[in-house]
Hints:
Blueprint: H1 24-28, H2 31-39, H3 44-58, E1 67-71, H4 78-86, E2 94-98, H5 99-102, H6 107-110, E3 116-120, H7 129-140, E4 144-146, E5 154-156, E6 161-166, E7 186-190, H8 202-206, H9 210-227, H10 241-244, H11 250-257
Parallel strand pairs: 1-6, 1-7, 2-3, 3-6
Antiparallel strand pairs: 4-5
Amino acid sequence: EIFDPSFDFLMTTRLKVGLDEFDSDLFHAGKFYAFMSQFSSEDKEIMEANRYRYALALSNIRSTKDIFYVFGDTNTGKGVDMDILTSFFEDEAISALKLKRLASRFGFASIYNTSLAFVSDEQNNLWDDDVQQTLKIISSRQLVECERKYEDTFKFVPFCLPILYSNRIPSISGSDDEGHAMSSRIFAIPTCKTVTTINPYLLKQILPEKAQIAQWALRFAGKIAREEKTIDHVIDVSCTAEEILRPEDLFRKWLNEC
């Protein structure tokens, strides 16, 4: 029997997970929901932003041009978050590299045929010209020519979703972002205040819930596809640093709670 396409299951074939029936009570009582609520500072808007991030990561939706930028202090759960997403894919479908490496001569080859690209922004040099151009190409799904050492050049269209992790909010000025061509793509999401006690078994406790997590994410992906729209950014990174820190902004609220 041939079924019509379902918006509720826009799932990449590379996912390593079964699709159990979604049980809302079971999901909300689970370890993942507790972790993600804390990771999102118990904030409904940030929680929705993280669900949106998971929806794009686990689905085939790659038309939004979003570049996720998850930032916050150390020990806030960024590593656990990355491990959870990694667990859904085979090793060859994931790339993990530093921002400068991505924009280097062989950077594009590292994301060839991958679904997710985890990028660390240790130097906070997101606005370097080469880096900006590289991220624009990836998020726009442009045909690129790349090379590997001692091999012929080849061309491909990047499919991976870039997710950047950093300890600091991205800083930018108007002169670095003419026309907001870059900042309009950056979906910055703040994490919670520093967690002083880390459960070393948290990831192990969360992984059995992968089927429910996938349903939680993919049902949201279906909503995105049906309505053909994205959700609003949590923070407008096209502002200057002073504007970002205005008292009424969500980031100031988050900062004051830390």
